[in-house]
Amino acid sequence: METSGDPFPSDWSPPPIEFLNPRPPQDAQGRRWGGVGTSAEGSEPQHADGDLKAGPASPEELFCSLACQSQQADVPEPSAHGLCSPPDSGNYVNSLDCLLQEKREQPPEQGLGSLFLQHSDALPCSEDSEDEDEDALLTPQHRLLVEKFAVSLQDIPQVHPGESVFLPRRYPLPCFLDASQLKPHSALEELFLNAPPSQQLFFLRSSLLSTLYLHSTRPCPVPVLQWLLKLLAWPPDTSSRAFGLLWDLSVDELFHQSGDTHGIGGLGPQPLEDSPAEPLPPASPEPSAGPADEDVRPWCPSLQEVMELLHSLGAHSPTAYLPGPCSRTLDGGDKEQQDPPQETALDMCLSNIYKFLTLCVYVRPGVYTDATLLGLTELLCRTGLDVGLRLLPKTNLQQLLLQLLECVREWPGKLQRLCRALSWVSDHHHNLLAVVQLFPDVTPRGRQLRSQLSLSVIARMLGQEEALPLWKEKSQLSLLSRLLGLMKPSALRQHLGFQPSTPCQEQWPKASAELDHKVCYLCHSLLTLAGVVVSSQDVTPEHWGELQLLCMQLDRHINTHIRESPQAMHRTRLKDLATQTYIRWQELLAHCQPKAKYFRPWKDL
Q1: Residue 243 falls within a domain, yes or no?
Q2: How far apart are CA 511 and CA 503, in angstroms?
Q3: Which of 199, 201, 259, 258 is nearest to 227 (CA)?
Q4: What own/partner pairs with CB < 8 Å and gap ≥ 24 does 309-313 have?
Q5: pLDDT tops 90 at residue 402
Q6: Is 324 left (phi over 0), alpha (psi -120 to 50) or beta?
Q7: Contact criterion met (CB below 8 Å) for 303 and 316
Q8: With a threshold of 0.70, does the pTM exceed it?
Q9: pLDDT of 313-366, one tens digit each?
């Protein structure tokens, strides 16, 4: 008991505050229930003030009483239908008791399983019938709603479609060694030259052929080298051995030619600097395959031999190769083969061929004429578009193409012919973009070819190859500004939308959607090529006005003409590329300042 005069009471409970205590709900007669003011079942209701003699309640008791009030206020009054109201009513409470009650009211799983078994005979068996039934169940309003929010699966592919260059071959072509003009110099060489083809392959696999010709004072005969070259088209186990021997024989010839002054560690450009140069005049013939050329070191295959080698790998009719825009050397022919091509084995064989040709043109840069170099470049670009090789890296091919460009003697004059030939390698714009990307941007000639070839492809796709002076204009950015106005979607739709027969009214929406996808796909490739043209230029303050004009035309003709839609993802892809290109060109503008203080680029519009 605390006294009235005690300044420090033993009970520190807060005094009761009426407005903090929520009033319990009342029934129809105005009686309160479920709160502090209610007593046990069957007893008289008590006053809310409670027993004053007990003193103020403790914090724990006050908290428990408030919790009981909130719980009892949330639980609705039991009805005849169950413990809780139905979900559609406004008094539905997602409590544990209600969930348990709903679970009890649901039919058991066994009943559902028996119901499914009873009606299983009436269910359709095929997927087509299921789709038809689902379409039949859809009301016209639901069908319109589905069509409104349907997303088209047509998108701009990131990988080019490719060309059917190499056809599948189950077995390699037979390879025979023509040793009729060869005279053996040892018993082992006589045994090798007179052996059947199977035993000659055993000489290669058992390294007896390396013992016979490697590190020898007498060079390896040309027919043997041609036989090893043909074996590069065989399966990888034989092709790798033939490539290793060809590589070692070529390097060994380099050491003999340089007098072994650098030893084994001198492999690379150093032995070639001291070796006597062998430049050939432009009109000199290609290296022949006769015994008279045995003194020429190292041996390099001719263009015809490279084409026959590709034909052995499955390339279609390489003998019909004619340099120029109308040539179709490696088009898809008979497609009745059942077995799919072995992409990995084909890639390994082609990599060995690219490596050997790179060594040949690096060691003897004057061995091929300019016409042969251009024809070989076009031929290799066609092989790089094969469908089965699209996703595989092409590092060896890119190194070979760069080396071929460096070997061209009359580069400014041959560049126009090479760009025209490469712009007709394929009829698809994405394949031509892949051809441009085969040439890395690491050398001056590679950058120049990428820029000129991109302009040629854009002009050909827009039908402006003969109308514009592609090779007379000094600035490529000014030519690109003329072509950029023709790349807007509305102009491309008119360029691609010509059809001899107008589709009926029912097929018109589908035809319009397909045309819209083709327009965006073509515009995406052309805009990527335009970015290649600008990135290949050395933008100086003199080109500031032309680049600013390109930015204005890009924003006016392409960005503002693309209407994005959730049903056409290809438009979003094109809009994203146009925005990225605009930002990149604006960054170039920020790094180069104009010479003139005031510049008005709109005067050329």
Answers
A1: yes
A2: 8
A3: 201
A4: 309/229, 309/230, 309/232, 309/233, 309/353, 310/379, 310/383, 312/172, 312/173, 312/230, 312/233, 313/166, 313/169, 313/233, 313/346, 313/349, 313/350
A5: yes
A6: left
A7: no
A8: no
A9: 988 754 334 344 333 333 333 333 334 447 889 999 999 999 999 999 999 988
What is the distance between the alpha carbons of residues 479 and 338, in angstroms, rounded to a whole number? 48
260 CA to centre of own chain = 48
Q: Is the pLDDT of residue 61 over 70?
A: no
Q: What is the DSSP string of 543-602?
A: GHHHHHHHHHHHHHHTGGG---BTTBHHHHHHHHHHHHHHHHHHHHHHHS--SSSS--GG
Query: Structure tokens of 67?
Result: 């919790």
Tell me whether residue 555 is in a domain: no
Give the orientation angle of helix 508-535 with respect to helix 476-484, to 10 degrees.
Answer: 170
Is the distance from CB of 370 to CB of 279 less than 8 angstroms? Answer: no
Asked if residue 366 belongs to a domain, the reply is yes
**In this structure, is the dihedral angle defined by the CA atoms of residues 195, 196, 201 and 202, taken in order, positive or negative?**
negative
Residue 325 lies in a domain: yes
Interval 534-575: pLDDT, tens: 999 888 888 888 999 999 999 998 888 888 877 788 888 999
Give me the pLDDT at residue 12, please.
Answer: 61
Range of the domain at 365: 165-275+284-333+340-425
Residue 316: phi, psi to the nearest 5?
A: -85, 120
Q: Return the residue matching tokens 């004072």.
A: 217
